[in-house]
């Protein structure tokens, strides 16, 4: 684990690692830039498994802790420049989860093709494909492929490891075999596509129609 993390993060210091059990580990940082990269540079994967990184919490107990939230980057392609407003980004973040950070180029309106925000999302809820800012329909792209399950819409596991997936036995009839072919998903390598749109159906999420506009 230690060597894999060093390869992922490439820190400029030695990082001690403590195994707490229950698949939890503690990393101690001395330099702010190394900790910032670990917390905000993801998503991170080790052998195709998604790695959740979060700050230390007092009275942490690995055996009784359950992961219910994780953080990821969300891209807002072709967001109109009049919506480059901190209050609007905050409202978007609140509809998806909790806003943690706005990309520096986004906050200064220098990234013309898309805006990018870093949010904390609940693992048990499906990710949204889009939302509305007034009457503008905004597509959402998520960084990382294997973290998005196209079977249940959940976050943190690929479709081939989905707990809600249907298992079909070999001795079932042709109708069941057809069902199997429609519910199974190939495991696509992460390197082939870094950003993707979730393709499962969702309800539209509407923000208030009257929103403050940022300066152009």
From TrEMBL:
Location of the CCHC-type domain: 149-164
GO molecular function, one term: zinc ion binding
Keyword annotations from UniProtKB, A to Z: Metal-binding, Zinc, Zinc-finger
SUPFAM superfamilies assigned: Retrovirus zinc finger-like domains (SSF57756)
One of the Pfam families matching this protein, by short name: DUF4283
Entry-linked PANTHER family: DUF4283 DOMAIN-CONTAINING PROTEIN, GLYCINE-RICH CELL WALL STRUCTURAL PROTEIN 1.8-LIKE
Full protein name: Uncharacterized protein At4g02000-like
Organism whose genome encodes this protein: Nicotiana sylvestris (Wood tobacco)
Gene: LOC104247708
